[in-house]
Specification:
Layout lengths: L1 H38 L5 H12 L2 H11 L3 H26 L1 H21 L10 H22 L3 E2 L2 E2 L9 H38 L52 E6 L6 E4 H6 L3 E8 L10 E10 H7 L13 E6 L4 E5 H4 L6 E6 L2 E2 L9 E3 L13 E7 L22 E6 L9 E10 L5 E8 L5 E2 L1 E2 L9 E9 L2 E11 L21 E7 L1
Parallel strand pairs: 3-12
Antiparallel strand pairs: 1-2, 3-4, 5-6, 6-9, 7-8, 7-12, 9-10, 9-11, 13-14, 14-18, 15-16, 15-19, 17-18, 19-20
Helix pairs in contact: 1-4, 1-6, 1-7, 2-4, 2-5, 4-5, 4-6, 5-6, 6-7
Length: 530
């Protein structure tokens, strides 16, 4: 009987020790959230550690995450961080049951890791970014020390220590302390989130106050024949809430347009320039139909979308700063665009100033940029993959050279220059579909931004290539829809598509991965005709 009682007591104490670790971890995070409201929201430990983890993740792993989790890759990372923290908290709670000081020291050590991550982030504003993690860890360490003490110190009754087999620890004191700690931590977290949310309210209000001016150079109307009426085809213009999102930020920046500034400086700049958001709105704006594509888009993948953009022609701003392209004797051959979250993208100066509609966009599909797509201002350059051209939440443009500076993705083994490859995709029928025998409409999209699409061909099984019917082309910077009426016969079949761009170059069948400069190969789908 005594053995059974001791075993049950040990089990209970172990369970409560694990709970004390979780409570200490919860307290550390909520107190850090509260402190981050006085520093800046991006300095909170989950955001800082998550950002540092993204920065140090190999390109292949990031590509795997995007390929398998899509736009949920950040949610998966955050859940992974929380799970790791929970397991760590349980471990230090059990450790503190036997070694109170060591367990508390482990919590402090984890706070140091969070602080180092925050200070080392590209967007760090200084050593103060480490305060939320350090203060939160200190609170968690003290709480763990107190709770572990309730589990290890004998309860005293009338000045006498109770015998071990009667209890040997202060159950009532533990429950009171744990309940109070949970309540206080919850309040701290709620207050922290509320205060951090207020900083975003100004940004939301600034966006709601924006009325986009009429463009001085409006886009030509999209031809009526650009959108084919084939079930299963995506719309020619992608709605803002359906437009793909690929970036590295865990928390979407909420930037107040009233305080936003853009600086242009660097090599070959005769005079530095600075612009407010209103400065850009006051300039002659261009409106253009442009299709964007992510370099992480696999063959047949979804990370491509089309929108009508409005903004300031970037080449005009660079010329005002005295910048010349290398072909005209300019000193700089690379633009480094910096985002408010510290991201850096490197773009060839020559491509921006060769006459294409490179812009600093302020609007998307008739409204101010959504926060998730870069409000207040983002950069985009037709014909280049996003990682070398489409800087969201941009705040700084530096003129430099490829020899002098490697941008974020180049440091991670992606190519310095990345023109979009000629690609095509079958959208209908879907892979492993079961269409009925007879005429089946095969349809999809093809793209080769800044070159245009000249021809699309379809092959059934190992048969000859047949020309598809092309929708009307809007511009060379937009994707192009196509269709093919297939006389489907019963059985299994493989449908393959390839495109020819406006220069006459046929899409390659060589299959490559997305790293280092975009995927290539023909897209195929397998179907069974009933």
């Amino acid at each position: 009987m005594t053995t059974v009682r001791i075993t049950r007591t040990a089990l209970t104490r172990g369970t409560l020790a694990a709970l004390s670790g979780l409570l200490a971890g919860f307290a550390a995070l909520t107190v850090a959230e509260l402190v981050s409201a006085a520093v800046r929201p991006e300095a909170s430990p989950v955001t800082a550690v998550g950002g540092a983890a993204i920065d140090r993740t190999p390109a292949g792993v990031k590509d795997f995450a995007i390929r398998n989790f899509g736009e949920n890759d950040k949610l998966v990372l955050q859940l992974g961080i929380v799970l790791t923290l929970a397991l760590f908290a349980v471990a230090v709670g059990l450790l503190a049951l036997r070694h109170r000081r060591t367990g508390s020291a482990a919590v402090l050590a984890f706070g140091v890791v969070g602080a180092a991550s925050a200070v080392s982030r590209p967007d760090s504003t200084g050593i103060t970014d480490g305060l939320p993690s350090l203060v939160g860890a200190a609170a968690g360490a003290v709480l763990l020390y107190v709770l572990a003490g309730r589990l290890t110190s004998p309860r005293r009754i009338a000045g006498e220590e109770q015998e071990e087999n009667e209890s040997g620890w202060d159950r009532r004191g533990f429950l009171i302390a744990a309940t109070a700690a949970a309540a206080a931590s919850t309040v701290a977290g709620a207050v922290g989130r509320t205060l951090n949310g207020r900083s975003a309210q100004d940004a939301v209000a600034s966006r709601q106050a924006v009325t986009l001016p009429a463009p001085a150079s409006p886009a030509k109307p999209i031809p009526a024949g650009a959108q084919l009426r084939v079930p299963g085809l995506p719309p020619f213009t992608t709605p803002n809430n359906k437009f793909y999102r690929v970036d590295t930020t865990l928390v979407v920046p909420k930037v107040d347009a009233n305080t936003w500034r853009l600086r242009i400086h660097g090599q070959g700049v005769r005079r530095d320039l600075e612009f407010t958001y209103q400065d850009l709105l006051n300039r002659p704006l261009i409106e253009r139909e442009i299709t964007l594509c992510c370099v992480s888009n696999e063959v047949g993948g979804p990370y491509i979308g089309h929108a009508k953009w409005i903004g300031v022609r970037l080449a005009d701003l660079l010329k005002e700063a005295g910048v010349k392209p290398p072909s005209r004797g300019g000193k700089a051959d690379q633009i480094i665009a910096r985002s408010v979250d510290g991201m850096t993208l490197g773009t060839p100066v020559e491509d921006v100033m060769d006459g294409r509609d490179a812009m600093l966009a302020v609007g998307m599909n008739g409204e101010p940029l959504p926060f998730v797509h870069g409000f207040p201002v983002r950069m985009l350059v037709p014909g280049l993959y996003g990682y070398v051209s489409a800087c969201k939440w941009i705040e700084d443009i530096e003129l430099t050279t490829f020899a002098d500076y490697d941008a974020y993705w180049v440091k991670r083994k992606w190519a310095r220059k990345a023109p979009i490859k000629t690609q095509s995709r079958i959208d209908t029928p879907k892979p492993f579909g079961r269409p009925e025998a007879g005429t089946v409409m095969v349809a999809g999209v093809a793209w080769a931004q800044h070159r245009g699409i000249e021809k699309v061909e379809i092959r059934v099984d190992d048969g000859p290539w047949r020309p598809a019917q092309l929708a009307e082309q809007d511009t060379v910077d937009t994707w192009r829809q196509w269709s093919y009426p297939w006389k489907a016969t019963p059985g299994g079949h493989t449908l393959t598509v390839r495109a020819t761009d406006g220069t006459g170059k046929v899409q390659t069948d060589k299959r490559t991965k997305t790293v280092p400069d975009g995927a290539s190969g023909w897209h195929s789908v397998v179907v069974t005709v009933d």
